[in-house]
Amino acid sequence: MRKGSLKKMAASLCAAVFLAAAGCGSAAPQSSAAAGTEAVSEASSEKAETKAQETKETAEDKENGNESRINEDGTITIVDQLGKTIELDGVPDRVATTIMPFPYIFYAVVGNNDNLIGCNPSSILAYNDSALKYMYPELAKADTSFVDTSFVVNVEELIKLKPDVVFQWNYMDDEIKKMEDAGIKVIALQYGSAEDLETWIKIISTMMGKPERAEELITYFHKSVGEVDQALAGVGKEDYSNVLLLSDKLKVTGKGFSNYWLEHSKAVSPSSDLTGEALNVNMEQIYQWNPDIIYIGNFTSIQPSDLLENKIEGEDWSAVSAVKSGNVYKIPIGGYRWDPPGVETPLMVKWLAKIQHPEEMKAMDMKDEVKKFYKTVYHFDLTDEMLEEILGDTQN
After folding, report:
1. Where are the domains of the chain?
2. CA distance between the termini of the chain
3. What per-residue confidence (pLDDT) applies to 227?
4. Cα–Cα distance between 301 and 357 in angstroms, integer?
5. Around Cβ 44, how many Cβ atoms within 10 Å?
6. Torsion angle, alpha carbons of 244, 250, 253, 255, to 10
7. Each residue of 211-247: pLDDT tens digit?
8. Which residues are CB-contacts of 21 (< 8 A; sequence separation ≥ 6)?
9. What number of other Cβ atoms are within 10 A of residue 336's Cβ?
10. What pLDDT is stored for residue 347 in this prediction?
11. Residue range 325-345: average pLDDT?
């Protein structure tokens, strides 16, 4: 495995900042249907970051008595990520969500999706390619008519579903207001970090009357990531792989949740300090970065073979180190896509670490890790065929 030169990467990063500031780089074509339904678009990410800053102090100053809780009379108090308090009469029977990763996180917490009556249409697109369809086929019946892939809600259609509560992103102010004006209870969630994910799990667990489940999942999450931290403890920065995160055609991933799994799997990305999740670049910039490994996101239809066999018109990938060495991988989809924060993030960290540091991770079998995770978290036994679907060509 080739390791990138840190000095070369630092120089490349400076060039990338200049290019981004100048607005150069090839304009990317219209994204595929899958790419067009990313959990948070570039513009949405900026709005989410702004909202996160606005609500950070509220969250930090929250007293224990004001946190989400189950009350003695059976009512449930939820404090969402806007710092807003939502009172529920009890465990809701009818839950709807506009948030794409939500259904599989909900499933991990509750053990079923019986209460989930509606979700984002992109969630179902992912579901059809995911292992969740085997674990919970009933989710296919969830209504998707009330929301589009940009999280805009049709209130008239939503009212027909008679939801007890709806989940929406915290930066969608207008959408939250119009639902609340219609008398619908809304819980706002914030996108972006492992800490935010833990808050989602705690809110869902409390709301569904299973507060102890949050502690179980979060403890297991940290234990699993900690196993990688321990295995890679002796890896110095000079041995970090130089990786490119390709989110779509000539678009790369910048600063965001990807930095979490890069940090724990001991890799560096030359675009990781740049703001945005879909940054336009050109082939000249790719050549300058010359990554050792390329990871292709699961929100785009682009496959490793498109790069390895130079199938993309107008792009010549043949001179890139990762392509020459065959180190091009598609990010998996398990219960959901592994790109954004989710309950399967520990598997993403292990998968990356195994690719980037095969010697340090040689004692770990990725098939066994995925099987064990599904048995522990979902109480579900994966077949070999299901494992093949999740891991594809990267069963390392």
Report:
1. 6-43+223-362, 65-213
2. 14
3. 98
4. 27
5. 18
6. 100
7. 999 999 999 999 999 999 999 999 999 999 999 999 9
8. none
9. 27
10. 98
11. 97
- Percentage of the chain surpassing pLDDT 90? 79
Token pair listed for 269: 């990305």
Q: How many CB atoms lie within 10 A of CB 16?
A: 24
Coil, strand, or helix at residue 64?
A: helix
Q: Give the Cα separation of 9 and 27 in Å (integer).
A: 24
Burial 74-111 (b: 16+ CB within 10 A, else e): eebbbbbbbbbebebeebbeebbbbbbbbbbbbbbbbb
Nearest to 332 by CA among 248, 241, 394, 257: 394
262 touches 268 (CB < 8 A): yes
| Domain 65-213 is found in CATH 3.40.30.10 | no
Tell me the CATH number for domain 6-43+223-362. Answer: 3.40.50.1980
In DSSP terms, 189 is beta-bridged to 169
> Measured between alpha carbons, how far is 169 from 49 in angstroms, rounded to an integer?
12
Same fold: 6-43+223-362 with 65-213: yes
